[in-house]
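Subject: Sanity check before I submit

Could someone independently write out the structure tokens for this chain? I want to compare against mine line by line before I put it in a report. The sequence has 193 residues.
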Amino acid sequence: MRAHSLWFLAACAIFSVLLQGCGYHFQKTRNPLVDLGIRKIYVSVFRNQTFRPGVEHYFTNAMIREIERSRSFELVNNEAAADAVLKGQISQTDSSINATKNIPRITSGLDRDVDVATEYKASINCDINLVDRHGRLIFSQTMGGEKVHLGAAQTGDAGATAPLINDSEHRMAIQFLAAQMMASVYQRMVDTF
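---
Independent answer below. Compare away.
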């Protein structure tokens, strides 16, 4: 049993050395901004410049999760206690038809053929800035993303629920984009320094 344990430890050590030699590394909790005096970060609620209510919360919460996950910084609850403030702005969000399907009048129950959307594309743009307590811009990133999501291809009376389903799918696509984009922005921010 002891020989098996020694082989396992040796294999782990060799694997770790090989990964480091290839440029891979395990995530550390080291603060890359400590030389700039940034240990505590306050994440301000993102500004929403769009007509889609609530999207700012998806992005704010996604960024908070990324900072918490890394454990490189201390999150604080107010701007006065922070060494730096992370601010964001959602500048554009859109939902456009990505694919349609023709439903013949016999199937649709209507007096004519109907084209219904089967896929939509959610897109969003945002700007993120990290500013220190002296007003210096430490990091800035503009980012956009797109995600295709299914549409509710219903017609007739049952189709009355389609807009609610489509809106729900759009919101889930935006939440997905927020998580992906904020993970990417956070990684770029810490890799810059």
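---
OP: Matches mine. For the report I'm noting this point. The radius of gyration is 24 Å.
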